């Protein structure tokens, strides 16, 4: 009888140990899952905060604050081109204005009967 009681106790202990292990693993899993959920929620909140702040500061998703991100070299090149185009436009307008003045002057001279004498220089 003593021996059978011992076996029963051992079996009960083994059963309890198995039970404890399952409960422990389940609780550990629950804790791990709970931590993941908390981290996930925290990450989402952080992401939302970043999006709202970037929207308020008008920062685009690529991280640049300027509407067209370019390197320093590209910006300088573009500025030179714009400057040149502007000065080229000014030069073109000056040429047109000068041509109009010359045409007007020739018309007036023609009406008044004044003609320029064109003489060829003699070569020696």
UniProtKB/TrEMBL annotation:
Superkingdom, natural source: Eukaryota
Biased composition (Basic and acidic residues): 101-112
Comp. bias intervals (Polar residues): 58-71
Taxonomic source organism: Neocallimastix californiae
Bias type Basic residues, positions: 113-124
Stated name of the protein: Uncharacterized protein
Residues covered by region (Disordered): 1-31, 58-86, 99-124
């Amino acid at each position: 009888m003593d021996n059978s009681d011992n076996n029963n106790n051992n079996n009960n202990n083994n059963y309890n140990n198995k039970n404890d292990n399952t409960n422990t693993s389940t609780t550990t899993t629950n804790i791990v899952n709970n931590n993941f959920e908390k981290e996930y929620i925290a990450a989402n909140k952080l992401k939302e905060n970043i999006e709202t702040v970037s929207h308020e500061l008008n920062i685009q998703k690529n991280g640049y604050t300027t509407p067209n991100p370019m390197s320093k070299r590209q910006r300088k090149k573009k500025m030179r081109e714009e400057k040149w185009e502007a000065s080229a436009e000014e030069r073109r307008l000056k040429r047109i204005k000068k041509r109009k003045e010359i045409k007007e002057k020739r018309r007036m001279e023609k009406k008044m009967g004044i003609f320029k004498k064109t003489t060829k220089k003699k070569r020696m």
